[in-house]
């Protein structure tokens, strides 16, 4: 199993958010993620939901929502000042994922290469 780190992101032009958690949540509509119910803030109500990171990115870039993105997805937008991590030490998290294959079959050369690349990338 490997972990993919994520952070909460907000539009880059938004003023610094340093208030209490309830005030932070009230300032923005929370973007609900489909499969990651263990993300902080996922218990809150939301008018938007996205199963894909591209959809989440669009909602966050609209300036109306805050939400979670994998760091590698947010990095180019963060570098241009269009997104910024919101309290990364407090709200960051990691998502575990697993790679599975049929145990009764020998993996092909292509499958072994894919497994090796994935394991190396997320080790």
Q: How would you characterize the overall build of this protein?
A:
With 123 residues, the protein is α/β, with parallel strands linked by helices. It has a single domain (2-121), classed as D-Maltodextrin-Binding Protein, domain 2 (3-Layer(aba) Sandwich). It has helices spanning 21-27, 53-61, 71-79, 88-91, 109-121; strands spanning 2-11, 29-33, 48-50, 65-70, 83-85, 93-97. Strands 1, 2, 3, 4, 5 and 6 form a six-stranded mixed β-sheet that branches. The longest helix is centred in the last third of the chain and has 13 residues, at 109-121. The model is unreliable at 1-5 and 13-25 (pLDDT under 50). Residues 46-121 form the LysR substrate-binding domain. InterPro entries: LysR_subst-bd (IPR005119).
Class, according to the CATH hierarchy?
Alpha Beta
Rounded Rg: 17 Å
Report the sheet-strand fraction: 25-35%
Query: Architecture, CATH level 2?
Result: 3-Layer(aba) Sandwich
Q: What sequence of helices (H) and strands (E) makes up the elements?
A: EHEEHEHEHEH
- Shape category: elongated
The CATH topology:
D-Maltodextrin-Binding Protein, domain 2
Q: Runs with pLDDT <50, length 5+? A: 1-5, 13-25
InterPro entries: LysR_subst-bd (IPR005119)
Domain LysR substrate-binding: 46-121
Organism: Aquipseudomonas alcaligenes
Protein name: LysR family transcriptional regulator
């Amino acid at each position: 199993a490997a972990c993919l780190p994520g952070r909460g992101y907000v539009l880059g032009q938004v003023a610094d958010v340093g208030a209490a958690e309830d005030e932070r949540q009230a300032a923005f509509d929370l973007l609900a993620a489909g499969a990651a119910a263990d993300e902080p803030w996922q218990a809150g109500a939301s008018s938007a939901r996205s199963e894909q990171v591209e959809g989440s990115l669009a909602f966050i870039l609209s300036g109306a929502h805050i939400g979670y993105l994998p760091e590698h997805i947010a990095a180019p937008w963060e570098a241009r000042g269009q997104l910024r991590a919101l309290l990364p030490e407090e709200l960051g998290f990691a998502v575990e994922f697993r790679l599975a294959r049929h145990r009764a079959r020998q993996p092909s050369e292509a499958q072994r290469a894919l497994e090796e690349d994935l394991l190396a990338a997320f080790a």
